[in-house]
Amino acid sequence: MESSGADRPLPRALVARFAEVVGESSCISDPAALRTYECDALAGFRVRPGLVVLPRSTDEVVAVVMLARAAGLPIVPRGSGTGLSGGALPVPGCVVLGLSRMKRILEIDLDNQWMRVEPGVINLEISRRLAPHGYYYAPDPSSQQVCTIGGNVAENSGGAHCLKYGFTTNHVLGATMVLADGAVVQLGGPVLDATGYDLRSALVGSEGMLGVVTEVVLRILRAPQATRTFFATFPSTSEAGQAVSLIVAAGIVPAAIEMMDRLAIRAIVAATGVDWPDVGAALLMDVDGTAAEVEHTASEATRLVREAGALEVRVPRDPTERDVMWRGRKSAFAAMGRISPNYVVQDGVIPRSDIARVLLEIEGLSARSGLRIANVFHAGDGNLHPLILYDAAVPGQEQLAEETGAEILRMCVRAGGSITGEHGVGADKAASMAEMFSEDDLATMNLVRCAFDPETRFNPGKVFPTPRLCGDRPGPYVAHTAELAGLAGRG
Amino acid sequence: MATTSRPGEVRDAVAGAVPERVFEPVNADECTEVMAREGGRIGFIGGGTELALGSAPAALDAVVRTGRMSRILEYAPADMVLIAEAGVTLAQVQAVARQEGQMLALDPPLPERATLGGLVATGGFGPRRARYGAIRDLILGVALVRADGVLARGGGKVVKNVAGFDLPKLLCGSLGTLGLIAEATFRLHPLPEASATAMCAGLTAAQVVALMADARQAQLEPSSGVALRGGGGFDLGIRFDGFAAGVREQVTRMGAIARAAGLSCEIVADDAAARRRHDQARVAGPLRVKLTALPARLAEVDALLAPVLAALAGGSFAWYPSLGIGFAGGEVADEAAASAALAVARASLVAAGGSLVVEAAPPGLRSIDPWGPPPPAFALMTALKQRFDPDGRLNPGRFVGGL
């Protein structure tokens, strides 16, 4: 895969100026320490940054941005680095702007159902803080114990429960961000329908390419009165897929429906010890709402699951057992380590009604490539997570796994879906963007980026399949000194 | 040439500006032809329900009407996704979706006239936004024809999709200043099996806020709420949608909660009468105002609005209590008093992070800036406009701050 060639350290005097802003202990330039920041959770892509700074306030972020700009250095924002698409992959010699130390919860307004947080706050921490009051924050990516809200905003993170409750974008009311010229701007806020363009909508999911978010206003929800979880097993993914279709056709919107195939179940059992049987497929499902509504939807969904050919339907006896079931599902990716030395995960989306057909195609692809493919996915919204297992020690396997992943994405696009449902495009899938979007589509997206960041200072090289600049309209384009020196790429 | 123009007439006016020429393309391809060829200043008209919205454009050379772009292009009931041309009306979509037990969860007034393109451009919504979100939460994809005639697509046709910047959402509420919305893709929802509404009459603003808070505390999940200002206070309708058993239980509990608060609420299966009253309030004129504030501040909003309503003859005020958005309007009896009261209300709402937008005004009140002070990120908005429409040809001057 990719690796950095430009490992030239930044001039000591320049590093010292960043250290003056954020403090010595928050300014990392030691080559060994920089290694931690070479990649995110997509560890195959690695690039050594020039510097890592960990500011503690919006003012410090502004100062860092201004310094980087003056020095002509690209800026790569970073949360916890749990992203799976290389969205926080540094570019050579860049400043990685880590937001993990900005982790204060600034304001909670239960009456009006919003809160204001700094970007480094951990996703799950928010719901923990709200739980005593009976409120929660809905988006729940599987990495929620470690991922940050800032990262969630950058990637428009989803999670199992976004089927009913929506994604990060549906729960971000506003943000404070720092632009490339150091300006601090407010987009949206706790009051709905701020006048003017809905720039917040452009910001969420922009993968750190528009600026640095330093505060986020989130919508918070009252916890539902009741939640019912059940786990159903099936002979194969066809019956499981049929069950999902029947439930949706009955007008039931489950809070979550997760599907796992045999290989995924085996890996999860091996990793977590959960007592799931060795079956062709399983569904883990939540329905929630008021008690009476849930009574109805749970019994109706159970009936439909049986009608579709379920082997067994299990209902957890208590919250602990429910947690064990969900922990099983949420540890699926990590569990692959138990059955394979390496894996690649994809994040393609297909129309829900096409699940059975596409799974068969993936099976065919697995047979042709000789690589095992486990499937864990958000069945309710057709968001596949095929895990392509390989052994990096076997020459050629890694590349074969990559190619197989790219072919699955092409299958998703052909089926009318998307190359990414929640992980983001990042560095990983930038090339696949051209499969889904025309040159005109991409150029139009670039107009948005250029409005925010005409110098393409933030996170260059992500999302777009080919490097692009912003042209000289509306303001004059000034080349970075680093660019002139061949140090920094643009994209 | 696939598209020819006809001379503009008064009925083709956008925010008061009558265009020289009118184009009526039949599909996205024809839109690109028109936009590529028409070098002048262009406005867009869908169903014409919000033509008064915004400042008057300096002048318009051309208007593109989307009425002939009236095809539903794709509808996959199993996937609950529908793709349609901009000129398709909301009622048309609902009629098709209803046959499959589904709906587009948008309920603005005038669904027979309001088009999808217009709803996206104006960010249209009704009470159901409380449960299903705004149009930005329902849109999945868009085909946009830029000022230079380039057709660009954003988003996709699956509910879950984070590939690229979210163009569809960004276009919601952009009022035809970034391009012509030619097609849009939406997620649909199941039609609820049953509905019931708790109607509570004569509440004070504080009682509205308290009752909504009690309902939330009790973990009830209303699909919408509307508080209509009458002479005797607010008439609050709290509606529940869903499966019959759940709806029955919720509305019964709602009634009990109201009684415990010393209020008496009537449970009605059909809230059509209240809905009509709401729709009338939403389309009342010639003055129409949209205001926003944190939901718990209704009492302050009500106090700010009292002098506005006093300057109207037969004024109305509809408030969405869980969203913090209200609409007021009516005949203006005293222009000077109305103008002064609007200025005071706007200043106070803006200071509290909200807004007051004059959506329509009689001639005597058109000197009021419809949008109010430019928002904090106005410089960024200007940059966006310049990137999409560098020559400032699309609805010039109509949007916030003259964008």
In short:
Chain A has 491 residues and is of the alpha+beta class. Chain A contains 17 helices and 18 strands.
Identify the strand order in the major beta sheet of chain B. Answer: 15-12-14-13-17-18-16-19
- What is the CA-based Rg of chain B, rounded? 21 Å
Helix content of chain A: 25-40%
The proportion of residues in beta strands of chain B is 25-35%
SSE topology sketch:
The complex is a heterodimer of chains A (491) and B (403).
Chain A: H1 12-22, E1 27-28, H2 31-34, E2 51-53, H3 58-71, E3 75-78, E4 95-98, E5 105-109, E6 114-117, H4 123-130, E7 135-136, H5 149-155, H6 162-165, E8 172-178, E9 184-188, H7 199-203, E10 212-219, E11 221-222, E12 226-234, H8 237-249, E13 256-261, H9 262-272, E14 281-289, H10 291-307, E15 312-314, H11 319-330, H12 332-335, E16 342-345, H13 355-369, E17 373-378, E18 386-390, H14 397-414, H15 433-436, H16 439-452, H17 481-484
Chain B: E1 5-7, E2 21-23, H1 28-37, E3 42-45, E4 62-65, E5 72-76, E6 81-85, H2 90-98, E7 102-103, H3 116-122, H4 129-132, H5 135-138, E8 139-145, E9 151-155, H6 167-171, E10 180-187, E11 189-190, E12 194-203, H7 205-217, E13 224-230, E14 233-242, H8 244-260, E15 265-268, H9 272-283, E16 287-292, H10 298-310, E17 312-320, E18 325-332, H11 335-351, E19 355-360, H12 378-388
Parallel strand pairs in B: 2-4, 3-4
Antiparallel strand pairs in B: 1-2, 5-6, 6-10, 7-11, 8-9, 8-10, 12-14, 12-15, 13-14, 13-17, 16-18, 16-19, 17-18
Helix pairs in contact in B: 10-11
Structure description:
The complex is a heterodimer of chains A (491) and B (403). Chain A is built from 17 helices and 18 strands. Chain A is an alpha+beta fold and 491 residues long. The longest helix of chain A is centred in the C-terminal third of the chain and has 18 residues, at 397-414. Residues 1-5 and 474-491 of chain A have low confidence and may be disordered. Helix content of chain B is 30%, strand content 27%. Chain B has twelve helices and 19 strands. The longest helix of chain B is centred in the middle third of the chain and has 17 residues, at 244-260. Classes of the chains: A alpha+beta (491), B alpha+beta (403). At the A-B interface, β9, α7, α8, α10 and α16 of A face β9, α6, β11, α7 and α8 of B.
